[in-house]
Design goal:
By secondary structure, this protein is an alpha/beta fold. Helices cover 46% and strands 17% of the residues. The termini are far apart.
Length: 426
């Protein structure tokens, strides 16, 4: 990394006008005495959370010269070596010597591109009057590396694409209680949300541009966050697995069956490689693998896991008819809403299947696109009865999009999916 390039990057940020940021439900804490880490899929809004935090600091009276922001995907900073990191504060002090001895705010974007970054951050915490914020698009990077290096001196927050509540706020759509017309609008917007997803840029983009941007996202995430990061040699297989995931969200993932299917197609791959590749997709926040709730960890590991993808908008990149399987999309959106608030989530099956439950048995949720069909209703009632028998003290919910009037008298816990998704206390 060349010091002159670094100085240009630092000064350019100090002098630039910060972009206007739409508010998110997640706000970064300051003044905690801990390193704040943001982990999440690429393009989910981590950088704009940085900018929003910087804007708030400036409003509070912090001088822009006390704030250093670096994006380690900036080509002007490449190649970046661990021994170059000390150059950051040295160049900043040469540019702004008047800030010597003042409290500093250091924002490091996509920090996983720098080898040895965690040890450097640890040393800064011990020797400098600095608040540090970092982002990364790898779950292991921030949950393992940051926590290990700082030993209790860090807080890691997860950043997801927009929730349905945030989607409506970004679109300036107001929720009006007890209005039939507004309810129809919200229901329509939920269908749009399932189709386009929650990436902030996609939500704000012209409808005609969304497919092109999503295509770009999928390629960038696949190659930058999976293939390059892990040195994947079989790119074709990895893309095929990614396509499988986004075509089968809300379904059980049986790696042994998938291995047999691939073998029958003439694709030579070991089962261990498949497990490794799915692990890479999980680490990049592209998929979540939900275990079956079992009392035994051994049984839990031997059962298929339920697959959910990070964003339903990306499904259109891999699926010829993206308006199919709306029920699975809704189930994934419900899972993501629950996952924003808690990590220990499971599915459960014993004859019938409960889509989602927690470790404590305090809640379980089933979701369905259309409850007007008698066969579907019977299946969902059986699932709700299973949940009630298994966890009699829990709050069970059956979420729907389409239904027949009077359903409330037939099944306990029924609720319109849009109401569930708009409730911040869900």
């Amino acid at each position: 990394m060349i010091s002159d390039n670094l100085k240009y990057v630092i000064r350019q940020f100090v002098e630039r006008i910060l972009p206007i940021c739409k508010p998110r439900e997640l706000a970064l804490p300051t003044g905690t005495g801990k390193v704040i880490g943001l982990a999440g899929v690429r393009r989910s809004g981590k950088t704009f959370l940085f900018f929003d935090t910087i804007q708030k600091l400036v409003i509070q009276g912090v001088d822009r010269r006390q704030i250093v922001y670096l994006n380690f995907e900036d080509d002007r900073l490449h190649p970046i070596r661990s021994e170059d990191l000390d150059m950051i504060l040295r160049c900043w002090r040469e540019l702004f010597p008047e800030t010597a001895g003042q409290h500093t705010y250091l924002f490091l974007d996509e920090v996983q591109n720098v080898p040895g970054w965690e040890r450097w951050v640890r040393r800064l915490c011990d020797t400098e009057d600095v608040e540090i914020f970092v982002t990364g698009s790898s779950s292991q990077l921030l949950t393992r590396d940051l926590a290990t290096a700082l030993r209790g001196r860090s807080i890691t927050l997860e950043v997801f694409p927009l929730s349905f509540r945030e989607y409506l706020q970004f679109r300036s759509i107001e929720v009006v209680p007890h209005s039939a017309d507004n309810e129809s609008l919200i229901r329509f917007e939920l269908e749009v949300y399932l189709s386009c997803g929650g990436f902030p840029e996609i939500v704000l983009a012209d409808e005609s541009l969304r497919p092109l941007i999503l295509e770009e996202y999928s390629s960038l995430m696949l190659y930058r966050d999976v293939v390059e990061r892990y040195g994947v040699r079989n790119e074709k297989l990895m893309r095929e697995l990614l396509r499988h995931c986004f075509r089968n969200t809300g379904s059980l993932l049986n790696v042994s069956k998938l291995h047999r299917d691939l073998t029958s197609q003439g694709i030579t791959v070991s089962k261990n490689t498949l497990f490794d590749y799915f692990g890479y997709l999980e680490d990049a926040f592209l998929i979540f693998l939900l275990p079956k709730r079992e009392t035994s960890l051994r049984k839990q590991e031997h059962n298929p896991k339920k697959l959910h993808v990070i964003d339903t908008g990306l499904i259109s990149v891999f699926q010829t008819f993206p308006n199919r399987d709306l029920g699975h999309k809704l189930e994934t959106v419900v899972f993501l809403e629950a996952r924003r608030k808690r990590k220990n989530l499971f599915y459960y099956a014993d004859g019938s299947e409960v889509d989602l439950c927690d470790a404590d048995g305090k809640m379980f949720i089933n979701s369905c696109w259309n409850l007007a069909d008698s066969e579907t209703l019977a299946r969902e009632k059986a699932a709700m009865e299973l949940g009630t028998r298994q966890w009699p003290d829990s709050k069970g919910k059956l979420l729907f999009h389409e239904y027949s009037p009077g359903l409330e008298q037939e099944v306990l816990g029924v609720q319109a999916a849009w109401k569930f998704l708009l409730d911040p206390d869900t």
